[in-house]
Specification:
Length: 783
């Protein structure tokens, strides 16, 4: 029953005719279904809370959480300071050593750190200490001897020492070395090497760990202050630097003669305290105690980050719980059984992911703002001091959380960007709808390019200077490649020869609205100026090349019967005439023969300016030298994400019609500022040229295509009127800013606006001469 409404899952009781709810009867029946057992609510009604997007309230709550915790971070975060970190680490490590010694069996009351170290050294000796001389004695042997490293490598070297009788580490130059244990290490009265497998493992692990505890707070002679052991980070650097890959690697060091020292020397200086000094000149050892203090300072950053995370997730849960209770109409405790926890628990939710991203972003911005203000006040204009104080107060944990949040949210962001782009494309389509009459379809574009190729070939074949002819042929090959790449077609198969192109034009002209399409192609051909810069390697070789013949005017009219010589002359004469009318003068550039070149250069410059939103196909200068309707189709193909031959969104939907008058007029309603800023002083001239082109096309089309004229003129009038209104809005918006820097830009916009308003008046005059057919349909000549 394709036209019926069917509810499945139960037993059919009765079939009813659908009621009439409109003036048009609806065919079909409805089946009334009765269930023997009521379906579970999951089957009756369900939705996926994870697919719901964040609401405005979610954004506000998330931003508030980020701002609050970002401000509280000032109270919770410790500022990075190595001296205070070392002091804090000394205190904590000393207390830890005493606790471990007591746990290991030390019974002395009121034991000091010195007592604890002596007890652990005596109770848990390590064979590696017998190699202290080989590894640099007290200042360096804990760093150079890998078995004194609190790292996986240190543990492995300790166990290997038990089974091989060898110590592993580096020499004074940082190269990896192996030393044999002396005989004293095997003295049975002071057992340092295990006698069996179990003892070797015990000595290599348990004794190793407890011996490191005795060393981390210094020696018994200098308890709490002397040489300790390297921390996990410095141990890793030392082990890594012993690899052949890092031998000879140098790092900047201001106190050396040449300003550099090897990385091995730098690591040693960090450990013995000669690399870092306080403002008072005191040396600071970068050992385990310093690393523990820095870790405490780093962990202090987590408090605000965790608080932000918890607050956001709680806010999400509370708002969703409220929604879930309302959805389930909970009015008693027994109604709670209908509540689904998955609909409000704070995990696996698109909205929650966005809330975390917003909260993390605001948290980082708040933290950076406060850090910058405090650093600015304390540095008193000293740039170096400002940078130091600023970075020491940055919450790097928050920055890391933001990075993870953005990564988790990127998929949703990409989807929303794509949707926003589609919506923007639809809005732009509304602007360009009136210019469909002024764009070529795929077939007409191919004919236009093929005719241009024929014109260039005719020119260089008739050039009697062999060197110049070779340069022109090189330019032609580069131009063909540029066009093919922009359209996504095969250069060898795309272009028609002269005869095929003219024949295709004739066939096209006899189809519906074909005469209009033929005029568009003719205008393209007339405005084509060969040997312009293409933005490719070797462009400078083509400088100064000019066409010596005019195939479009001399030969083209004889090759086909779609567009005669009179029509070509009318297109050119009308354009020059309208240019004089719009500007109120006779521009010297027109009289000097530069009008066409200005059109070409202006169109290309405009299209490049629209790379972010419209003319993405022109990035890299691939279409410099192209203009009008052909440029429109190149942009459409690239913007659509597919080759012209294969179609795509751009060609199918006409999202960005960049074409002659379309470029000058249709885009200005929403992007006038961008156009004027990108073109500078050429902006007014460009608008003048493009308006003249549009008017010339309309005038000739009115004379030669009377059936299509009403629609052409009306479409042009509507589109230009929209564009004029858009520029007025742009100017008003910029003037409201009150920025004097924009005066030049506003002057350019005013100039272009004047030409467009004059253009609109000319179109209105045409409308008076060409009665509009209200019952007709819009002419479909473009995409």
């Amino acid at each position: 029953m394709p036209n019926g409404i069917i509810l499945t899952g139960g037993k059919t009781v009765r079939v009813l005719q659908l009621p009439r709810v409109t003036t048009t009867a609806i065919a079909g029946n409805a089946q009334l279904v009765m269930y023997d057992v009521a379906p579970e609510e999951d089957e009756a009604f369900d939705f996926d809370p994870g697919a719901n997007r964040a609401t405005r309230l979610d954004y506000v709550l998330a931003a508030a959480s980020g701002a609050l915790t970002g401000a509280l971070n000032v109270l919770w975060q410790k500022e990075f300071d190595l001296e205070s970190a070392k002091s804090w680490g000394d205190e904590k490590v000393s207390g830890f050593v005493v606790k471990v010694a007591k746990t290991a069996g030390m019974t002395k009351k009121d034991a000091t750190i010195e007592d604890a170290i002596r007890f652990l050294e005596k109770s848990f000796p390590m064979a590696a200490d017998k190699l202290a001389a080989e590894f640099g004695w007290s200042l360096q042997h804990h760093l150079r001897d890998f078995s004194h490293h609190p790292s996986p490598v240190g543990l492995a070297c300790s166990i290997l020492m038990q089974f091989t009788g060898k110590g592993y580490g580096t020499d004074t130059d940082g190269r990896f070395v192996v030393f044999d244990l002396p005989a004293v290490a095997y003295d049975p009265e002071c057992q340092l090497i295990g006698r069996n497998f179990a003892e070797k493992i015990a000595f290599g692990t348990v004794f190793w760990a407890l011996h490191l505890v005795s060393d981390m707070a210094g020696s018994s002679s200098t308890p709490g202050k002397g040489v300790g052991i390297p921390g996990a980070f410095l141990s890793f650097l030392k082990e890594l630097s012993s690899l052949p890959l890092f031998q000879g690697l140098k790092v900047p060091y201001s106190r050396s003669k040449d300003g550099f020292i090897t990385i091995q020397q730098w690591i040693s200086k960090l450990f013995n305290g000669t690399a870092i000094k306080t403002k008072g000149g005191k040396n600071i050892r970068f050992d385990l105690r310093a690393e523990i203090g820095l870790l405490d300072q780093a962990l202090s950053q987590l408090k605000a980050v965790i608080a932000n995370e918890v607050i956001v997730r709680c806010l999400y849960m509370l708002t969703r719980l409220k929604t879930e209770l309302e959805r389930c109409e909970v009015s008693s405790v027994s109604d709670l059984r209908r509540v689904k926890p998955a609909n409000f628990l704070p995990y696996n939710s698109r909205a929650l992911t966005r809330m975390v991203t917003v909260a993390s972003s605001i948290f980082v911005l708040t933290n950076l703002s406060i850090a910058a203000v405090r650093a600015g006040v304390e540095s008193k204009g000293n740039g170096g001091e400002f940078a130091r104080k600023f970075f020491l107060r940055v919450n790097f944990a928050g920055v890391g959380r933001l990075a993870f949040a953005l990564h988790a949210d990127w998929g949703y962001m990409a989807e929303e960007i794509a949707e926003a782009w589609d919506e923007r494309a639809k809005r732009r389509q509304d602007v360009f709808d009136g210019f469909h009459f002024y764009a070529l379809d795929a077939d007409a574009t191919r004919v236009a390019y093929s005719l241009k190729l024929a014109a260039v070939r005719h020119d260089y074949f008739n050039d009697h200077d062999e060197k110049r002819m070779k340069l022109k042929r090189r330019w032609t090959r580069a131009w063909r490649t540029s066009v093919a790449e922009g359209l996504g077609v095969d250069s060898g198969d795309y272009f028609l020869n002269e005869g095929q192109a003219c024949e295709a034009l004739e066939v096209m002209s006899h189809a519906k609205a074909g005469r209009v399409r033929a005029l568009l192609i003719a205008q393209e051909l007339l405005d084509f100026v060969p040997y312009q810069r293409l933005g490719v390697a070797g462009d400078k070789d083509f400088k100064g090349l000019k066409a010596g013949t005019s195939w479009a005017k001399d030969k083209f009219p004889q090759k086909q019967d779609a567009v005669d010589r009179d029509a070509l002359k009318a297109l050119e004469d009308r354009r020059c005439g309208y240019e004089r009318d719009l500007s109120g003068t006779i521009p010297k550039m027109v009289l000097g023969g530069l009008a066409v070149a200005a059109v070409t250069a202006g169109t290309a410059g405009l299209a490049v300016a629209f790379a972010p939103g419209i003319a993405v196909s022109l990035v890299g200068g691939s279409f410099v030298g192209l203009s009008g309707a052909a440029l429109a189709n190149a942009s459409l193909a690239a913007l659509g994400g597919g080759a012209l031959s294969a179609g795509g969104f751009g060609m199918a939907g006409g999202t960005a019609i960049i074409t002659g008058g379309g470029a000058a007029l249709g885009l200005l309603g929403s992007s006038g500022i961008a156009v004027a800023a990108s073109m500078g002083e050429d902006y007014g001239r460009f608008v003048l040229q493009e308006c003249s082109r549009l008017l010339a096309f309309l005038a000739v089309a009115v004379d030669r295509c009377p059936h299509e004229a009403p629609t052409l003129v009306k479409s042009a009038g509507d589109a230009v009127r929209r564009s004029v209104n858009g520029i007025h809005e742009d100017i008003a918006r910029e003037r409201a800013k009150g920025d004097r820097k924009d005066n030049k830009l506003l002057k350019q916009l005013d100039g272009g606006l004047g030409y467009m308003e004059s253009c609109l008046k000319q179109i209105e005059k045409m409308q008076e001469r060409v009665p509009l057919d209200d019952g007709g349909t819009r002419l479909e000549t473009g995409v």
